[in-house]
Write a structure and sequence with these properties.
- The structure is a single chain.
- The protein is α+β, with helices and mostly antiparallel strands and 295 residues long.
- It has a domain of 105 residues.
- 30% of the residues lie in helices and 13% in strands.
- It contains 8 helices and 9 strands.
- A 3-stranded mixed sheet has the order 2-1-4, with no helix packed on it. Strands 3-9-8 form a 3-stranded antiparallel sheet, with no helix packed on it.
- Strand 1 and strand 2 form a beta hairpin.
- Helix 3 packs across helix 4.
- The longest helix is centred in the middle third of the chain and has 39 residues.
- About 22% of the residues have low confidence.
Length: 295
Amino acid sequence: MDDADTCAGIRPQLGVYLTGAIAPADRVVVVRHLTACASCRTELAGLAGLPALLRRPPVQAAAQEPPEDNTAPDNTGTYYPDADYPGTGYPDADYPGTGSPDLGYPGADSPDAGYPGADYAGAGHPDAGYPGARRLVRRVARRRRRRRWLLVAAACALVVAAGAGWAMHLLGSSAPGPRAEATLLQTRTIGDVTVLTDDEGYTLYWFGPDSATKSACLDSCARSWPPVTGPATWDSGVTGTIGAIVRPGGALQATYNGHPLYTTTADTGPGQTKGNGVWSHGGEWHEVTVPGRAG
């Protein structure tokens, strides 16, 4: 299989590799390919913002339930669900209860009453219990349907946004130059020596017991001498060969001229070289000098 076919098989897996959802066997294949393929490393750097997009919180405003509407169906007053409307206990009543001698119209049971029965709408009335009962039921049903549609619309919007972001990163051409998400290698003159640094100006080191393909700095050593994450990009002042190796666990570590690269917690600021010439964790540490081979 030529390089173009290999890249075509690897690039569809870069997204799941970046999100951590890739199978262990596939992860090893992808990492080994990235070590040797600058084009795919550039593609991976372009996808670095995708996990943050997928973690964006849902659209809550569209899914928020509308405020409770306590307006009566005829929009003329406040509806009290527990009130025996109309009756002696109605909160907004400015008149005595049904059948009161002070009522300005005949009693509820009078044949001259303007409405049937003592309960306003009698048991046999089609709207028994409340004059706008059926309208109220229809209003509540419409409100529930509207809430369901809003929730569905919000979910669809999230899916579309995630899909659009994925497509933009996969189909869009990568802009030339270094990416902020990748480790940028630079040079800096300290004293009379030009050393290799990261994008924050911290000096980079190499470890004597390492080989070109394997790091000997693990566990507590890696906590004191953090490996430089690969793949790396570099500015025009960096000469030499930039690469990467696969660390135990599958992570990439940047290399320079065959040396895996590290920083040190001993350097508390840019421009320091407190790790140079130090014997630690079974070997000697050296600052990476430029140009030429490290050390």
